[in-house]
Design brief:
Elements: H1 2-11, H2 15-26, H3 31-37, H4 44-84, H5 102-116, E1 120-122, E2 127-128, H6 130-133, H7 145-148, E3 159-160, H8 166-174, E4 179-188, E5 200-210, H9 215-230, E6 236-241, E7 246-256, E8 264-274, H10 276-288, E9 299-305, H11 307-315, H12 328-331
Parallel strand pairs: 1-4
Antiparallel strand pairs: 2-3, 4-5, 5-9, 6-7, 7-8, 8-9
Helix pairs in contact: 1-4, 2-4, 5-9, 5-11, 8-10
This protein binds adenosine-5'-[phenylalaninyl-phosphate] (FA5).
Adenosine-5'-[phenylalaninyl-phosphate] (FA5) is lined by residues 149, 163, 165, 189, 191, 197-198, 201, 203, 205, 243, 246, 249, 267-272, 302-306, 308-309, 320.
Protein backbone atom coordinates (compact mmCIF):
# COMPACT_ATOMS: atom_id res chain seq x y z
CA UNK A 1 0.00 0.00 0.00
CA UNK A 2 2.83 2.33 0.87
CA UNK A 3 4.48 1.74 -2.46
CA UNK A 4 1.26 2.29 -4.36
CA UNK A 5 0.55 5.45 -2.41
CA UNK A 6 4.04 6.82 -3.06
CA UNK A 7 3.69 6.12 -6.80
CA UNK A 8 0.35 7.90 -6.90
CA UNK A 9 1.80 10.87 -5.04
CA UNK A 10 4.67 11.09 -7.51
CA UNK A 11 2.21 10.91 -10.42
CA UNK A 12 -0.10 13.65 -9.02
CA UNK A 13 0.78 16.80 -10.98
CA UNK A 14 -1.86 19.14 -9.61
CA UNK A 15 -2.98 20.07 -6.13
CA UNK A 16 -6.41 18.64 -6.91
CA UNK A 17 -4.94 15.28 -7.95
CA UNK A 18 -2.81 15.24 -4.79
CA UNK A 19 -5.85 16.01 -2.64
CA UNK A 20 -7.60 12.97 -4.16
CA UNK A 21 -4.63 10.73 -3.18
CA UNK A 22 -4.63 12.23 0.30
CA UNK A 23 -8.34 11.48 0.74
CA UNK A 24 -7.89 7.98 -0.60
CA UNK A 25 -5.23 7.02 1.99
CA UNK A 26 -5.34 9.30 5.02
CA UNK A 27 -8.82 10.87 4.74
CA UNK A 28 -11.51 10.13 7.36
CA UNK A 29 -12.59 7.06 5.37
CA UNK A 30 -9.16 6.51 3.79
CA UNK A 31 -7.44 3.15 3.49
CA UNK A 32 -4.98 3.84 6.37
CA UNK A 33 -7.74 5.13 8.62
CA UNK A 34 -9.73 1.97 7.88
CA UNK A 35 -6.70 -0.17 8.83
CA UNK A 36 -6.33 1.69 12.12
CA UNK A 37 -10.05 1.28 12.77
CA UNK A 38 -9.69 -2.48 12.20
CA UNK A 39 -7.11 -2.81 15.03
CA UNK A 40 -9.87 -3.40 17.59
CA UNK A 41 -10.72 -6.71 15.96
CA UNK A 42 -7.20 -8.10 16.46
CA UNK A 43 -6.20 -10.04 19.57
CA UNK A 44 -4.77 -7.57 22.12
CA UNK A 45 -1.19 -8.96 21.91
CA UNK A 46 -1.02 -8.23 18.14
CA UNK A 47 -2.54 -4.77 18.28
CA UNK A 48 0.52 -2.88 19.41
CA UNK A 49 2.90 -4.23 16.77
CA UNK A 50 0.32 -3.94 14.03
CA UNK A 51 -0.55 -0.41 15.13
CA UNK A 52 3.09 0.64 15.06
CA UNK A 53 3.47 -0.87 11.57
CA UNK A 54 0.46 1.02 10.21
CA UNK A 55 1.74 4.23 11.78
CA UNK A 56 5.07 3.93 10.02
CA UNK A 57 3.28 3.56 6.69
CA UNK A 58 0.96 6.43 7.52
CA UNK A 59 3.84 8.71 8.43
CA UNK A 60 5.70 7.83 5.24
CA UNK A 61 2.63 8.57 3.13
CA UNK A 62 1.90 11.78 5.03
CA UNK A 63 5.48 12.98 4.64
CA UNK A 64 5.41 12.30 0.90
CA UNK A 65 2.06 14.10 0.65
CA UNK A 66 3.41 17.14 2.53
CA UNK A 67 6.51 17.32 0.43
CA UNK A 68 4.61 17.03 -2.84
CA UNK A 69 2.09 19.63 -1.69
CA UNK A 70 4.93 22.05 -1.02
CA UNK A 71 6.42 21.41 -4.45
CA UNK A 72 3.08 21.90 -6.26
CA UNK A 73 2.25 25.09 -4.32
CA UNK A 74 5.64 26.62 -5.13
CA UNK A 75 5.15 25.75 -8.81
CA UNK A 76 1.70 27.35 -8.82
CA UNK A 77 3.05 30.51 -7.18
CA UNK A 78 5.92 30.67 -9.67
CA UNK A 79 3.49 30.42 -12.57
CA UNK A 80 1.31 33.17 -11.07
CA UNK A 81 4.28 35.49 -10.58
CA UNK A 82 5.54 34.81 -14.08
CA UNK A 83 2.15 35.62 -15.56
CA UNK A 84 1.94 38.89 -13.62
CA UNK A 85 5.48 39.98 -14.24
CA UNK A 86 6.02 43.08 -16.40
CA UNK A 87 7.69 42.26 -19.67
CA UNK A 88 9.63 45.44 -20.33
CA UNK A 89 10.30 44.39 -23.93
CA UNK A 90 6.58 44.53 -24.87
CA UNK A 91 5.45 47.62 -26.83
CA UNK A 92 3.37 50.10 -24.77
CA UNK A 93 -0.42 50.16 -25.02
CA UNK A 94 -0.63 53.89 -25.78
CA UNK A 95 -3.42 56.23 -24.69
CA UNK A 96 -6.13 57.01 -27.22
CA UNK A 97 -5.77 60.68 -28.10
CA UNK A 98 -8.49 63.12 -29.04
CA UNK A 99 -8.51 65.28 -32.12
CA UNK A 100 -10.03 68.46 -33.45
CA UNK A 101 -13.61 68.24 -34.69
CA UNK A 102 -13.86 68.68 -38.47
CA UNK A 103 -15.91 71.85 -38.02
CA UNK A 104 -13.19 73.29 -35.77
CA UNK A 105 -10.62 72.53 -38.48
CA UNK A 106 -12.68 74.24 -41.17
CA UNK A 107 -13.14 77.25 -38.88
CA UNK A 108 -9.39 77.33 -38.25
CA UNK A 109 -8.74 77.34 -42.02
CA UNK A 110 -11.31 80.08 -42.65
CA UNK A 111 -10.26 82.24 -39.74
CA UNK A 112 -6.60 81.90 -40.69
CA UNK A 113 -7.47 83.27 -44.14
CA UNK A 114 -9.41 86.21 -42.71
CA UNK A 115 -6.80 87.03 -40.08
CA UNK A 116 -4.26 87.33 -42.87
CA UNK A 117 -6.59 89.86 -44.48
CA UNK A 118 -6.64 91.84 -41.24
CA UNK A 119 -10.05 90.85 -39.83
CA UNK A 120 -10.80 90.74 -36.11
CA UNK A 121 -12.51 87.55 -34.88
CA UNK A 122 -15.50 87.96 -32.57
CA UNK A 123 -18.25 85.85 -31.03
CA UNK A 124 -21.69 86.75 -29.76
CA UNK A 125 -24.60 85.44 -27.70
CA UNK A 126 -26.53 82.40 -28.90
CA UNK A 127 -29.56 83.53 -26.89
CA UNK A 128 -30.48 86.70 -28.71
CA UNK A 129 -32.99 89.55 -28.61
CA UNK A 130 -35.63 89.48 -31.31
CA UNK A 131 -34.68 93.04 -32.20
CA UNK A 132 -31.08 92.13 -33.08
CA UNK A 133 -31.94 88.89 -34.89
CA UNK A 134 -34.69 90.43 -37.02
CA UNK A 135 -35.86 94.10 -36.74
CA UNK A 136 -32.48 95.76 -36.78
CA UNK A 137 -31.59 93.59 -39.78
CA UNK A 138 -34.49 95.07 -41.71
CA UNK A 139 -36.76 92.09 -41.03
CA UNK A 140 -39.93 93.52 -39.38
CA UNK A 141 -42.35 91.11 -37.73
CA UNK A 142 -44.65 90.96 -40.76
CA UNK A 143 -41.78 90.23 -43.15
CA UNK A 144 -42.12 86.91 -45.04
CA UNK A 145 -38.36 86.30 -44.67
CA UNK A 146 -39.06 85.31 -41.05
CA UNK A 147 -40.68 82.15 -42.33
CA UNK A 148 -37.44 81.18 -44.04
CA UNK A 149 -35.68 80.96 -40.72
CA UNK A 150 -38.02 79.12 -38.37
CA UNK A 151 -37.17 80.16 -34.89
CA UNK A 152 -36.76 78.53 -31.48
CA UNK A 153 -38.42 80.98 -29.10
CA UNK A 154 -37.69 81.24 -25.40
CA UNK A 155 -40.47 81.79 -22.88
CA UNK A 156 -39.09 85.23 -22.03
CA UNK A 157 -39.53 86.45 -25.62
CA UNK A 158 -35.89 86.04 -26.57
CA UNK A 159 -34.80 83.44 -29.15
CA UNK A 160 -31.95 81.22 -30.23
CA UNK A 161 -30.25 83.21 -32.98
CA UNK A 162 -31.12 81.88 -36.43
CA UNK A 163 -27.95 83.31 -37.98
CA UNK A 164 -24.78 85.14 -36.91
CA UNK A 165 -25.95 88.38 -38.56
CA UNK A 166 -27.21 89.94 -35.26
CA UNK A 167 -23.52 90.33 -34.32
CA UNK A 168 -23.25 92.83 -37.17
CA UNK A 169 -25.58 95.07 -35.19
CA UNK A 170 -23.99 94.44 -31.79
CA UNK A 171 -20.50 95.12 -33.12
CA UNK A 172 -21.42 98.33 -34.95
CA UNK A 173 -23.25 99.69 -31.91
CA UNK A 174 -20.07 99.25 -29.86
CA UNK A 175 -17.41 100.13 -32.46
CA UNK A 176 -16.69 102.86 -34.95
CA UNK A 177 -15.84 102.34 -38.62
CA UNK A 178 -13.70 101.43 -40.44
CA UNK A 179 -14.05 97.84 -39.28
CA UNK A 180 -13.44 94.32 -40.54
CA UNK A 181 -14.75 91.39 -38.53
CA UNK A 182 -15.64 87.75 -38.84
CA UNK A 183 -18.09 86.18 -36.40
CA UNK A 184 -17.97 82.49 -35.61
CA UNK A 185 -20.57 80.50 -33.71
CA UNK A 186 -23.57 78.23 -33.49
CA UNK A 187 -27.00 79.07 -34.87
CA UNK A 188 -30.34 77.32 -34.47
CA UNK A 189 -33.36 76.73 -36.67
CA UNK A 190 -36.57 74.95 -35.93
CA UNK A 191 -36.67 72.77 -39.00
CA UNK A 192 -36.77 69.13 -40.02
CA UNK A 193 -33.29 67.65 -40.30
CA UNK A 194 -31.99 65.79 -43.32
CA UNK A 195 -28.62 64.96 -44.86
CA UNK A 196 -27.81 68.63 -45.46
CA UNK A 197 -29.87 70.38 -42.77
CA UNK A 198 -29.39 70.38 -39.01
CA UNK A 199 -31.38 72.30 -36.40
CA UNK A 200 -28.07 73.41 -34.87
CA UNK A 201 -25.26 74.33 -37.21
CA UNK A 202 -22.47 76.89 -37.54
CA UNK A 203 -21.92 80.05 -39.47
CA UNK A 204 -19.08 82.36 -40.30
CA UNK A 205 -20.25 85.91 -40.76
CA UNK A 206 -18.15 88.65 -42.28
CA UNK A 207 -18.67 92.40 -42.02
CA UNK A 208 -16.61 95.19 -43.51
CA UNK A 209 -17.65 98.83 -43.07
CA UNK A 210 -15.90 101.99 -44.16
CA UNK A 211 -16.06 104.72 -46.74
CA UNK A 212 -16.16 103.71 -50.38
CA UNK A 213 -16.55 99.96 -49.85
CA UNK A 214 -17.96 98.40 -53.02
CA UNK A 215 -19.32 95.17 -54.44
CA UNK A 216 -15.90 94.70 -56.08
CA UNK A 217 -14.33 94.52 -52.59
CA UNK A 218 -16.88 91.89 -51.62
CA UNK A 219 -16.22 89.76 -54.69
CA UNK A 220 -12.47 90.07 -54.28
CA UNK A 221 -12.73 89.02 -50.63
CA UNK A 222 -14.81 85.92 -51.39
CA UNK A 223 -12.41 85.01 -54.23
CA UNK A 224 -9.46 85.40 -51.85
CA UNK A 225 -11.19 83.09 -49.37
CA UNK A 226 -11.81 80.50 -52.11
CA UNK A 227 -8.13 80.60 -53.12
CA UNK A 228 -7.12 80.21 -49.49
CA UNK A 229 -9.38 77.18 -49.14
CA UNK A 230 -8.81 75.47 -52.48
CA UNK A 231 -5.64 76.90 -54.00
CA UNK A 232 -4.85 79.48 -56.68
CA UNK A 233 -7.11 78.02 -59.37
CA UNK A 234 -10.28 78.22 -57.23
CA UNK A 235 -13.32 79.70 -58.95
CA UNK A 236 -16.21 81.64 -57.40
CA UNK A 237 -19.69 82.31 -58.72
CA UNK A 238 -22.22 84.93 -57.61
CA UNK A 239 -25.94 84.74 -58.28
CA UNK A 240 -28.42 87.48 -57.41
CA UNK A 241 -30.37 86.62 -54.29
CA UNK A 242 -32.48 88.29 -51.66
CA UNK A 243 -31.66 88.96 -48.01
CA UNK A 244 -33.49 91.86 -46.33
CA UNK A 245 -30.31 93.18 -44.69
CA UNK A 246 -28.33 93.60 -47.92
CA UNK A 247 -28.94 95.39 -51.21
CA UNK A 248 -27.92 94.16 -53.69
CA UNK A 249 -27.74 90.61 -52.36
CA UNK A 250 -26.19 87.48 -53.78
CA UNK A 251 -25.50 83.84 -53.11
CA UNK A 252 -22.00 82.64 -53.72
CA UNK A 253 -20.61 79.26 -54.68
CA UNK A 254 -17.06 77.99 -54.87
CA UNK A 255 -15.84 75.43 -57.39
CA UNK A 256 -14.70 72.39 -55.49
CA UNK A 257 -12.00 70.57 -57.46
CA UNK A 258 -11.26 67.57 -55.39
CA UNK A 259 -8.97 64.57 -55.83
CA UNK A 260 -11.81 62.11 -55.13
CA UNK A 261 -13.39 63.26 -58.37
CA UNK A 262 -16.30 65.05 -56.67
CA UNK A 263 -15.70 68.37 -58.36
CA UNK A 264 -18.76 70.60 -58.31
CA UNK A 265 -20.08 74.03 -57.39
CA UNK A 266 -20.51 74.27 -53.65
CA UNK A 267 -23.20 76.73 -52.55
CA UNK A 268 -21.56 78.29 -49.53
CA UNK A 269 -23.64 81.22 -48.36
CA UNK A 270 -25.19 84.62 -48.86
CA UNK A 271 -23.67 88.07 -49.14
CA UNK A 272 -24.32 91.62 -50.26
CA UNK A 273 -23.92 95.33 -49.57
CA UNK A 274 -25.16 96.37 -46.12
CA UNK A 275 -28.69 97.78 -46.47
CA UNK A 276 -29.07 101.48 -45.47
CA UNK A 277 -31.88 100.46 -43.08
CA UNK A 278 -29.35 98.37 -41.13
CA UNK A 279 -27.04 101.38 -40.68
CA UNK A 280 -30.06 103.39 -39.59
CA UNK A 281 -31.09 100.76 -37.04
CA UNK A 282 -27.52 100.76 -35.68
CA UNK A 283 -27.54 104.56 -35.34
CA UNK A 284 -30.92 104.38 -33.55
CA UNK A 285 -29.48 101.90 -31.04
CA UNK A 286 -26.34 104.03 -30.66
CA UNK A 287 -28.46 107.10 -30.02
CA UNK A 288 -30.46 105.23 -27.37
CA UNK A 289 -27.14 104.37 -25.71
CA UNK A 290 -26.03 108.01 -25.79
CA UNK A 291 -23.57 107.57 -28.66
CA UNK A 292 -23.13 109.52 -31.89
CA UNK A 293 -24.95 108.55 -35.08
CA UNK A 294 -22.05 107.73 -37.37
CA UNK A 295 -23.21 104.94 -39.65
CA UNK A 296 -25.67 106.67 -41.92
CA UNK A 297 -23.94 107.29 -45.23
CA UNK A 298 -21.40 104.52 -44.63
CA UNK A 299 -20.82 101.67 -47.05
CA UNK A 300 -20.11 98.06 -46.25
CA UNK A 301 -20.51 94.46 -47.25
CA UNK A 302 -21.49 91.36 -45.30
CA UNK A 303 -21.51 87.65 -45.92
CA UNK A 304 -22.56 84.51 -44.06
CA UNK A 305 -21.66 80.92 -44.80
CA UNK A 306 -21.97 77.43 -43.36
CA UNK A 307 -18.73 75.59 -42.50
CA UNK A 308 -20.60 72.26 -42.38
CA UNK A 309 -20.93 72.37 -46.16
CA UNK A 310 -17.18 72.79 -46.57
CA UNK A 311 -16.38 70.07 -44.03
CA UNK A 312 -18.76 67.56 -45.65
CA UNK A 313 -16.97 67.83 -48.97
CA UNK A 314 -13.48 68.20 -47.57
CA UNK A 315 -13.70 65.09 -45.41
CA UNK A 316 -16.16 63.09 -47.51
CA UNK A 317 -18.89 63.07 -44.84
CA UNK A 318 -22.18 62.31 -46.60
CA UNK A 319 -24.64 63.41 -43.89
CA UNK A 320 -24.47 66.59 -41.77
CA UNK A 321 -26.01 64.73 -38.81
CA UNK A 322 -22.80 62.69 -38.37
CA UNK A 323 -21.04 65.82 -37.09
CA UNK A 324 -23.14 65.94 -33.92
CA UNK A 325 -24.12 62.29 -33.39
CA UNK A 326 -20.89 61.58 -31.44
CA UNK A 327 -20.43 58.28 -33.24
CA UNK A 328 -16.85 57.16 -32.49
CA UNK A 329 -16.75 55.30 -35.81
CA UNK A 330 -17.03 58.65 -37.59
CA UNK A 331 -15.30 61.09 -35.25
CA UNK A 332 -12.64 58.52 -34.30
CA UNK A 333 -11.20 59.01 -37.77
CA UNK A 334 -10.16 62.51 -36.74
CA UNK A 335 -8.18 61.33 -33.73
CA UNK A 336 -4.66 62.49 -33.30
CA UNK A 337 -4.64 64.77 -36.31
CA UNK A 338 -4.50 68.14 -34.67
CA UNK A 339 -5.08 70.33 -37.63
C1 LIG B 1 -28.26 83.55 -43.69
O1 LIG B 1 -28.31 82.96 -42.62
C2 LIG B 1 -27.76 84.95 -43.79
N1 LIG B 1 -27.62 85.52 -42.47
C3 LIG B 1 -26.44 84.97 -44.55
C4 LIG B 1 -26.02 86.36 -44.96
C5 LIG B 1 -25.17 87.08 -44.15
C6 LIG B 1 -26.48 86.91 -46.14
C7 LIG B 1 -24.79 88.38 -44.52
C8 LIG B 1 -26.11 88.20 -46.54
C9 LIG B 1 -25.26 88.91 -45.72
P1 LIG B 1 -28.99 81.44 -45.07
O2 LIG B 1 -30.24 81.16 -44.35
O3 LIG B 1 -29.00 81.20 -46.55
O4 LIG B 1 -28.51 82.93 -44.89
O5 LIG B 1 -27.83 80.57 -44.43
C10 LIG B 1 -26.47 80.75 -44.80
C11 LIG B 1 -25.74 79.43 -44.94
O6 LIG B 1 -25.91 78.64 -43.75
C12 LIG B 1 -26.29 78.53 -46.04
O7 LIG B 1 -25.74 78.87 -47.27
C13 LIG B 1 -25.85 77.18 -45.60
O8 LIG B 1 -24.47 76.97 -45.91
C14 LIG B 1 -25.97 77.27 -44.10
N2 LIG B 1 -27.24 76.69 -43.63
C15 LIG B 1 -28.48 77.24 -43.65
N3 LIG B 1 -29.39 76.42 -43.09
C16 LIG B 1 -28.71 75.32 -42.68
C17 LIG B 1 -29.06 74.10 -41.99
N4 LIG B 1 -30.31 73.86 -41.58
N5 LIG B 1 -28.09 73.20 -41.74
C18 LIG B 1 -26.81 73.45 -42.13
N6 LIG B 1 -26.41 74.55 -42.75
C19 LIG B 1 -27.34 75.49 -43.03
Amino acid sequence: MQQEALQEITAADTLEALQAVKTKYVGKKGLITQQLGGLGQLPPEERKARGAEINVVRQAIQAALDEKEGTLKRAALDAKLRSEAVDVTLPGLGLPSGGLHPITRVYDDLIGIYRQMGYAVVEGPEVEEEHYNFEALNVPWYHPARDLQDTFWLEDGRLLRTHTSPMQIRYMVDHEPPLKIVVRGKVYRYEATDATHESMFHQLEGLVVGEGISMADLKGTIAEMARGLYGPSAKVRFQPSYYPFVEPGADFAVYWDNPRGESKWLELGGCGMVHPNVFKAVDDLREQAGKDRIYEGMTGFAFGLGPERIAMLKYGIPDIRYFYANDPKVMGQFRGELG
